[in-house]
Please model this.
Amino acid sequence: MQYRWTISQESNNQLTEIDMQKRMFDVLPPLNKSTQHFVHESTMKSSLYSAKIEGNPLTETQFSQNEGQGQHLLEVQNLTQAYDQISKMENTITFSQIKKLHAIVMNALSSSTGQFRKEMVAVYNKAGIVEYLAPPWQEIETRITQLLAQIGDSSIHPIVASAVLHFGFEKIHPFMDGNGRVGRLLASAFLNKSGYGFRGTLSIEEQLHEQKSEYYDALSFSDANATEFVTFWIRAVRDRALHVFEQYTQLKSLPERKEDSLLPRRREILLIIRDHKQVTFDFLHRRFLRIPSSTLHFDLEQLQNEGFVTKVGQTRGAFYIESQKT
Model:
């Protein structure tokens, strides 16, 4: 199947704006220690807001402190691993990459991780009415092959190609669950590899969550005409790019702080200690359940050695506080 679309003059103007933002962004100095955490935080936001689009109730604060119900937290943690994975992907998207992303996203959430569906599925609206009947499972690989070939046309603007990739992937609906999350991952991966990820800071998922109703409406068209979604996607990327460029330039003007040189997890530990004033090791361990105790102890030792935190006491009742001078 070949997807079709029409680009309006307004959308063309928005693509020109995005290209201009990209050129301005590309000549900015590289991230220094005071702004490197911006990329990490953007990945966290992509993960959180992709999950929130699907109804996950976690807030940024809850996620940053590893709080919330088990499945909700697991959904976002899985997505964080998947967004880290797309930074390592080759330029060409393959079946194995798609299945691997799904396996990461649905780890411990589905019994068919990394496997294309083997039955017919339908997409329902809020009223429980069938909105779209996905193609037969026997056609999945053929349709994905056709989709990847179509977006590989170098004459298509990368922003448009990423929109068609996302739109087409949702229409194919290759998995029993997790298609939206994987589709957004693939679109983000395509933007990054095409040079339109703004150094990994775009976090288009936050923009999509802010415009969730419009996003779903644009995706709801059941035929091969992707015009509505392409139009929506171009505008969303333009708006997000403007926002990110403003944030980035403001960060570049900030003085470098010692804590900004910390590894992401150690910086998170410091922020938790700062927020709660004093915390025990058990408290921290509950918030980093996937991190071995030995690794967490080492992180705390390094934070102590570098003067960021102080350990008070030596028994099981010991706790950690932020050092007076950091």
User: Anything to note?
Assistant: The beta strands are 122-124, 130-133, 278-279, 309-312, 319-322. The radius of gyration is 22 Å. The first strand starts at residue 122 and ends at 124. The chain has two domains: 9-252, 258-322.
